[in-house]
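ok so i was messing around last nite and threw this chain in just to see what happens. nothing serious, just curious
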Amino acid sequence: MPQEVEESKETPRRGGTERGRGQPARNGRPAAAGPVFGALDLGTNNCRLLVARPQGQGFRVVDAFSRIVRLGEGISATGRLSEAAVERAIEALKICARKMQHRGVTHMRNVATEACRQAANGEDFVARVARETGLALDIIPPAEEARLSVLGCQALLDPACRRAIVFDIGGGSTEMTWIATNRGAAPKILGWTSVPFGVVSLSEMFEAADRVTPETYAKMRGIIRARLEPFDRRYNLTPAIAKGGIQMLGTSGTVTTLTSLSMGLTRYDRSRVDGAWVTTERLLQLCRELSDMDHAARAAQSCIGVDRAELIVAGCAILETILELWAVPRLRVADRGIREGLLLELMSAVRLSAVGDKNGRRHNGWRRGRPRRSHD
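result:
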């Protein structure tokens, strides 16, 4: 996948979204069409933004941004966010702030996850972000992260399945959620766990940027398995999966990248990857092939590139462990998650409090004291 992605045309999102296209105003800004929502997810590895307008029971994306910032780089050794990582993140956040101002965002929520949870200077970073970008970041707990990820992915749940395991392999942690699909209603979370290892933290722990020996790869998988087995026992997942009717849904750069490779794509194509089904056998094959390559060979693969090549082996170790522990025949792939969950939740809240929001005032996104736009 590309290191940075910017999207300025309006695109519909599946899952409650209706197709349509707004018309820009003559000044280059989108035509006024009611409230505009922003959702920002600052993770251990990536900074991601979506800007959207409500449409039907879903939304239409009008702008998007994604950049690898490596905020959590080195945190496993120092316990702190490094100055270089902070500066990379703030540079990306300034772009996000400008995009939201340009699009006239009226309601937003900006969240930070594992890197800021772990770092001793996480709160100092949040304060600096407010000073330098005007954005208010919420450091959310793992349970909130898991819930938002499920909310963002719920349109991809198979109504024919009674239960589902939804997982999100992040940069600093991996969230696992066991849910009841509740046909025709919002899914119910039955249990969840947060494994404090993601692609960045696991890579750094085993220095997995270049070639990884089979012994090291086995150790990586062993650490993840030891963290997942208590979750499996607590909710009796293995017996439940053996009975059938359980869906596995994965959202992460690891899953979308391997799906792209499985499809033979020369460039990443979200419209083909999001919602796709891939067999477990094919994913396990790709995990083993990539784990046996050196950095140069991985970087030469389509849809991986230099930066992701450093992290993909750790992602494969996590994914392979999940798929072997819970042996479902196939996995559904989601290129969506926390940001989509944030947008849906914000829009739902505004619908419930429409009277209080008629003036388009901003919500939970700009720090206090930030100069307001003239229409606020």
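not much to say yet. The radius of gyration is 20 Å.
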